[in-house]
Amino acid sequence: MELVEADETDLDALVERWYDLATAMEPYSALNEVAYEDATAVPDDGFRAHLDDPSVTDYLVVVDGKTVGFVTVETGDRPSRELGRYLDIANLEIDAGHRSRGYGEAVVERVDRMAREEGCDYLTVSCEWDNDGARRFYRDAGFEPKQVTYTRPLE
C-alpha cells in the first residue's frame, strides 16, 4: 500500500470517493444530508482548493497500481499548547470491495510516520458519534477520545 499525493488529474477519483464517504455518513445525522443527487453532480472545487492550500493534502490509497481509497490530511497548530502541532485525518475512505484487508490501518500508520517526519506532536481524527465501526477502528489504531463536538441546528 502506498499513498500517492493527488494532483489535478485525480479530482474525479477524489470526488467519487468523497461522495461515497459523505453519503455513508447521512444516516448518522440530518446535518449530514448531501446536497447532490450523485457523484457526477459534485463540483471538484473543494478538492481543487486543497491543491493550493499548503496545510491540506489529499492522497490516493494505491495497492498494486490500483486506487482503493483516499485520505485527506490537514496540518494545524495550537500555539498556546506545549504539544500544539498536529496532523488531522480529515477524510479516510477505503472502497467497499477493499475493506477489512488492513489498508485503513496501513494508511493510519503511514500518516503517523508523516506526522512524525513533519515534527507534529499528535494526530487527530473525528467520526460520527454513533458510527461504532469507525470509533472501534480508531480506538484499535491507538486514538483516544479527547473532545466531543456538539451541534445545534438553527432551523
State the distance separating the first and last CA atoms.
44 Å
Strand content: 15-25%
- Based on DSSP secondary structure assignment, what is the total number of beta strands? 5
Structural class: alpha+beta
The biggest sheet, with number of strands, parallel, antiparallel or mixed sense and barrel status, is: 5 strands, mixed
Lateral strand order in the biggest sheet: 1-2-3-4-5
The whole-angstrom Rg is 16 Å
Q: Tell me the series of helices and strands, N- to C-terminal.
A: EHHEEEHEH
Helix content range: 25-40%
Q: Low-confidence spans: pLDDT under 50, at least 5 residues?
A: none
Morphology call: globular
Mean pLDDT: 97
Q: Count up the helices.
A: 4
How are the secondary structure elements laid out?
Layout: E1 2-5, H1 11-25, H2 45-52, E2 56-63, E3 66-77, E4 85-94, H3 103-117, E5 122-125, H4 132-140
Parallel strand pairs: 4-5
Antiparallel strand pairs: 1-2, 2-3, 3-4
